[in-house]
Amino acid sequence: MTQIFDEQGNAIPVTVIEAGPCYVTQVKTLEKDGYRAVQLGFEEVHPRRLSKGERGHLTRKRIPALRHLREFRLRKDEDLKVGQRILVDVFQVGDRVDIVGTSKGRGFAGVVKRHGFRGGPKTHGQSDRLRAPGSIGSTTTPGRIWKGQRMAGRMGGVRVTAQNLRVELVDAERNLLAVRGSVPGANGGLVMVKQARKSRELARKPGE
After folding, report:
1. What is the CATH number of the domain that holds 181?
2. Shared-domain flag, residues 113 and 189
3. Which residues of 122-153 are buried (b: 16+ CB within 10 A; e: fewer)?
């Protein structure tokens, strides 16, 4: 993360993302696959880094070796061709996007850190209940612990979506995209940038 300044001199916290170039490696159609989608590839690598299946998939279409392949659904008004390059200039300042990534792994965490529990009292003679979860169930009814009860366990390392982030900067020369706020994952992690689904400006009519 870093910060940029607007015309009024206000500091805006942003996350800088290298967004492209991406290649269209496959187009799925309603007639053949049952739904409309596009597969995009990102980050060129040496062909030895890929499996034989991945190399064959890309070589047949004369596309360079790409490390990451991800699928995105297409709308009715979008039409892409295999081999087409997608650059960061598809975004504009002011657009709303969703960022999908894998959150940082925190390992085994207690309920205070994992779920924000308050913990036990700090006084009245307690000595070892400060960060304990407290009661996790009742006695005869239901006589068991409810499924989904919040307890200590593995935290982080899961798919997370940061929704409705505003695009603050588009650098077409360096394929850089700056969005307001933070995004899931550590520095250098892989994220997917999608059009925001809950933005009012991009609300679709029923049936679209």
Report:
1. 2.40.30.10
2. yes
3. eeeeeeeeeeebeeeeeeeeeeeeeeeeeebe
Look up the domain containing 55 and give its range.
21-86
Instruction: Say if residue 112 is in the same domain as residue 189.
Output: yes
Are the CB atoms for 81 and 25 separated by under 8 Å? no
pLDDT at site 75: 80
pLDDT (tens digit per residue) in 76-129? 778 888 988 999 989 999 999 999 999 999 999 999 999 999 999 989 998 999
Share of the chain above pLDDT 70, in %: 96
Cα torsion through 91, 87, 29, 62, rounded to 10: 180
Task: Decide if 189 contacts 101 (C-beta within 8 A).
Answer: yes
- Looking at the structure of the chain, the number of domains it has is 2
Same domain, yes or no: 65 and 105:
no
The answer to whether position 126 is within a domain reads no
Q: What pLDDT sits at residue 171?
A: 93
Q: For residue 36, what is the domain's CATH number?
A: 3.30.160.810
